[in-house]
Amino acid sequence: MRVQVAIVGGGVGGTLIANRLRHLLHGDARHETNITVYDAHGIHTYQPGWLYVPFARQDPEKLLRPEARLLQQGITLLSGHAGNVQRILPAEKRLLTADGELHGFDYLVLATGSRNAPEDVPGFAEGADHFYSEEASRRLQEKLAHFAGGRIITGVASVPYRCPPAPLEFTFMLEADLRERGLREQTELHYVFPINRPFPIQPVSDFVAPLLEERGITVHTFFNVEAIDPARRIVSSMEGEELPYDLLVLAPPHKGQDVIAASGLGDRDGWIPTDRATLRVKGYEEANIFAVGDATDLPVSKSGSAAHYQGHVVAETIAADVQHRPLQHQYHGRVACFLETGHGQATFLWFDYEHPPKPPKPRRLWHLEKAALNTFYWQLIPPARI
Amino acid sequence: MATSQIGKVDTVVDAKGQVCPMPIVMLAKAFKDLAVGQILMLLATDAGAKKDVAAWAEKTGNLLLETSEEGGVLAFYLQKV
Ligand SMILES: Cc1cc2nc3c(=O)[nH]c(=O)nc-3n(C[C@H](O)[C@H](O)[C@H](O)COP(=O)(O)OP(=O)(O)OC[C@H]3O[C@@H](n4cnc5c(N)ncnc54)[C@H](O)[C@@H]3O)c2cc1C
Prior knowledge:
Chain A is of the alpha/beta class. Chain A has nine helices and 21 strands.
């Protein structure tokens, strides 16, 4: 009997798992296993590139590739209506897609990522800018090009959000960009963050705090954004602070995808309760249902890097099971990422559940490595070469 | 928690298993809906919460009435001022 592996989401995690799993299956197991990727768009986006779009350093068109071209031969891709999963029925082991088809599965991987939820903060859609979508990063590029000085507030509207260092990277790059354009003197820069330091992880916070000070960026801690008044251009916090702005650039609120909530698989914000080591969806431990990446409630960064390491664990676990050598691989919380510090320099963060990162001094080398990853992502990550 | 001197709480926020910055964010959100004088109990397992909650109370001018720890679970009692 054929084995059906359904992977919902053709982003970083889903694509890597499909390709890695196919590679790990041999002989009869390869022939008898159908791997199907369901993706609502059929277009794969390299989201980290959006960080550079506001500074006109990245053409957003170049961040897109057809998902079909990233999947090895022998993997089925369903996209558009046929790939847009509307309901997951875990007990029945079925998926319902937008074209009304029901699809059975033996193994299910949920890799649906997250979505921006600007509606969670009153005034966000009208009053704030961001770089968490292609459209928003293009709009911000437009605004920055016309910016002639004033007060810019950067930071995050609420947690969790994708790529925790990104708002800091944006801030450092913005500061350098304004300097290069001769606008730094006319611009006040402020950074807002919900806790009492500029980054959740203490060693990273200790690393960035002096950099922010050195660059003349005022940090407002314990600033949990409550509302934005676009008419008066004021952002206010739950702690009772009000800050006026000319340009407000905040990581938007994030939520899990609607299909997760609609299927009763998410917590209040639509994140999937997931075992931190086995990556199995809690409550369905015996049913071979896994979740990876941004869609999960795991206490690690919502990052492509985490999705990548988790993807390997899930692909190995499913491959072993299909080939009757059941072995549960474990995820240890590994994340590796770069943090741009502006002026063509960056640092490197490498950590897991037990070991916090120790960021080295910013160097040109890390910036060049990040630039290389941005270029070679397509050859390295989706095909699971690393 | 059984050791608490506080008889009555108005809201409980369970941030057990959540890591920084979630406990503070959940606290800030829940506090918004409290009336002056009401008491909130925050449960957390993240050790960093001890320092963060005290600093948050100081910054916002609310009262941290009591902190206790039992079986790895921290319980904070905060009153809205
Ligand atoms: C500005 C920015 C900078 C970033 N920088 C970095 C960085 O430097 N390093 C890093 O590691 N990460 C970075 N990230 C984060 C990274 O892009 C994400 O964490 C990563 O894409 C998550 O992978 P995923 O597979 O979980 O989800 P995604 O890659 O988001 O993929 C989810 C897929 O699911 C599909 N989908 C959703 N719902 C459905 C449905 N109902 N049916 C079918 N398909 C569905 C979507 O179409 C999408 O293709 C950054 C993100 C942003 C926005």
